[in-house]
Each structure stands twice: as structure tokens, then as C-alpha cells.
């Protein structure tokens, strides 16, 4: 089985940089995968991505060598097992609030006797290797999302779940869960109480011997998260990157065209 590059980076003491795919497009996935990310996650929770398209996106990402991951819609065994069978090397599961939910999540990720995953890695056998069944349990990563007040209350129990590889912080939902609508939703939290909560999750994960990941809006905040000790950082997503690049391109164009028009008008006035 092809080794999980994220785990290799961690063994080298290096963080992983993850990209995020919300659009339902194998071509976009192929483009993003060619940019040099360590991993790319297909968002099947809030993204516009159905299972068949997600499989095509995983296929499009294969040539780049990027680690393919999927955020599933919910804690559902069918969604988790099908994403793994399609070739995902990591699953991010949203709204894990209790130890019992974390245990169920892990059980869906592992084959017996360590879990209840059903055997049938239809595409994974071709994408990961014919010996997939012998090594999948140790190569695929299980990330439980911590994003609610309930999860924070049960944090010690969640991070101690056997077989859980890491926790993944969703800052937007965490802000809602801990403070309601006191603050605007979004990434890159600056509020002291939310920064404290993020660092607490990190601290508890490290103490339990598992990894911690954080979703970020900018490279600057991602670097800050790595300096705190986060093992994986996600930076923005394809939708925001497209919108940002288009906005910047248009802004530059309007400025340059405006300057060119002003010079042209000035030159014309001198001709008379």
C-alpha cells in the first residue's frame, strides 16, 4: 500500500499543509492537487459534492501524489466507509461531541477486530495498492472535528479515544458553539477566549498523544498555528481562493485601465 505522506511528514517532525475543495469539479481538484499541497480534502458536508463526483475528484488528484482526504457529511458509517473505499486516506468527521461518538467514528474507520468497517475497497485496491486490506488500518487517518460547547466539555474523553489519530478544529462553528452570536463567524480567531479554546484543544490533543489540525483563512494565521504546535493546517478553500484571485485581478485591472484612460485623455487634450 502506498504510504500516507502526512504520517511521513509527522515522523520527520514537519507539519502538513492541507487544501480544501468545496466545488464539485474533478478539474478543479486536479488543478489544486498540482499546486504542491501535502493533502487535499474534499468537503462533502458543506461543499457541493456528491459521492460519484467525489470519486472522480479523488481520481483526478491521484497523479500529483497529494494525500486525498474527505470531510464526510456526518457521523454515518455508510458515508465514511464509501469515502474510504473510493480511496480517501483520511476522514474528517464533523460534530463529534462525545467519547461514544468518537468511538463509533473510529470503529467505522477500521476493519475487524479493531472496528466494524466492511471490506470492499473497490477503488482503493487500485489507487492505494493490492495489499490495501493489510495496511489500511494503520495508514488511513481519523480526524474528529471539535466545534461545539459539548465537545469542549467532553474534550478529555474524546482525545483519549483509542484509535483516534487527531482532532480537527472548525473555528467558525466553535465560535458559535462557545459564544453564540457574540462574534461574527469565520476563521483566524483573534478573540482571547476563542484563541484560548483553540490552544486548549491543541494542548489536550498533544497530552493524549494524538495530532491536532486547524482550519485557517490565511497563510499568516496558519503559520501562527504551526508555531503553537499544530500538526496540520488547512488554508482557505478553492471557492475563497478563486473569489480572492478574481477580485484582486479585477481591482488591478480597474486601477491600471483608469490610469491608462487618464493618460490617454491628457494626451488627447494636448493634441488640440
Describe the model.
There is one protein chain. An eight-stranded parallel beta barrel has the order 1-2-3-4-5-6-7-8, surrounded by eight helices. The model has no long low-confidence stretch (mean pLDDT 96). It is α/β, with parallel strands linked by helices and 272 residues long. The chain contains 13 helices and eight strands. The N and C termini lie far apart (76 Å). It is globular. The chain has a single domain (5-236), classed as Phosphoenolpyruvate-binding domains (TIM Barrel), CATH 3.20.20. Helix 2 packs parallel to helix 3. The longest helix has 33 residues, at 238-270.
Topology of helices and strands:
Layout: H1 5-11, E1 16-21, H2 26-33, E2 39-43, H3 51-61, E3 67-71, H4 77-85, E4 90-93, H5 99-109, H6 124-127, H7 132-139, E5 141-146, H8 149-153, H9 155-159, E6 166-169, H10 171-179, H11 192-208, E7 211-216, H12 219-228, E8 232-235, H13 238-270
Neighbour order of strands in the largest sheet: 1-2-3-4-5-6-7-8
Tell me the fraction of residues in β-strands, as a range. 5-15%
Arithmetic mean pLDDT: 96
Taken together, the total number of domains comes to 1
Radius of gyration, CA atoms, in whole angstroms: 21 Å
- CATH H-level homologous superfamily name: Phosphoenolpyruvate-binding domains
In total, how many beta strands? 8
CATH T-level fold name: TIM Barrel
Helical content class: 40-55%
What structural class do the secondary elements suggest? alpha/beta
Shape: globular
Number of helices: 13
Return the CATH class: Alpha Beta
Provide the low-confidence segments as ranges.
none
Q: What's the end-to-end separation, in Å?
A: 76 Å
> Helix and strand succession?
HEHEHEHEHHHEHHEHHEHEH
- CATH architecture designation: Alpha-Beta Barrel
The main sheet comes to: 8 strands, parallel, barrel
Amino acid at each position: 500500500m502506498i504510504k500516507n505522506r502526512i504520517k511521513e511528514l509527522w515522523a520527520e517532525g514537519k507539519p502538513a499543509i492541507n487544501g480544501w475543495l468545496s466545488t464539485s469539479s474533478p478539474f478543479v481538484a486536479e488543478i489544486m492537487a498540482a499546486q504542491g499541497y501535502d493533502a487535499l480534502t474534499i468537503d462533502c458536508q458543506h461543499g457541493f459534492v456528491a459521492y460519484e463526483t467525489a470519486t472522480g475528484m479523488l481520481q483526478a488528484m491521484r497523479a500529483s501524489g497529494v494525500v486525498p482526504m474527505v470531510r464526510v457529511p456526518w457521523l454515518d458509517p455508510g458515508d465514511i466507509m464509501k469515502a474510504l473505499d473510493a480511496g480517501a486516506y483520511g476522514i474528517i468527521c464533523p460534530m463529534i461531541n462525545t467519547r461514544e461518538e468518537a468511538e463509533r467514528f473510529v470503529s467505522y474507520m477500521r476493519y475487524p477486530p479493531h472496528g466494524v468497517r466492511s471490506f470492499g475497497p473497490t477503488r482503493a485496491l487500485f489507487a492505494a495498492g493490492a495489499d490495501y486490506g493489510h495496511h489500511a488500518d494503520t495508514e488511513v487517518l481519523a480526524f474528529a472535528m471539535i466545534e461545539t460547547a459539548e465537545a469542549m466539555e467532553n474534550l478529555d474523553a474524546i482525545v483519549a479515544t483509542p484509535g483516534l489519530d487527531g482532532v480537527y478544529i472548525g473555528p467558525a462553528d466553535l465560535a458559535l458553539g462557545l459564544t453564540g452570536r457574540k462574534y461574527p463567524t469565520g476563521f483566524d480567531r483573534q478573540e482571547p477566549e476563542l484563541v484560548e479554546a483553540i490552544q486548549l484543544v491543541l494542548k489536550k490533543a498533544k497530552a493524549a498523544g494524538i495530532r491536532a489540525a486547524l482550519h485557517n483563512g490565511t497563510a499568516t494565521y496558519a503559520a501562527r498555528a504551526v508555531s503553537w504546535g499544530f500538526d496540520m493546517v488547512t488554508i482557505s478553500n478553492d471557492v475563497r481562493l478563486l473569489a480572492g484571485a478574481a477580485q484582486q485581478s479585477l481591482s488591478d485591472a480597474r486601477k491600471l485601465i483608469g490610469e491608462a484612460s487618464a493618460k490617454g485623455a491628457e494626451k488627447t487634450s494636448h493634441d488640440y
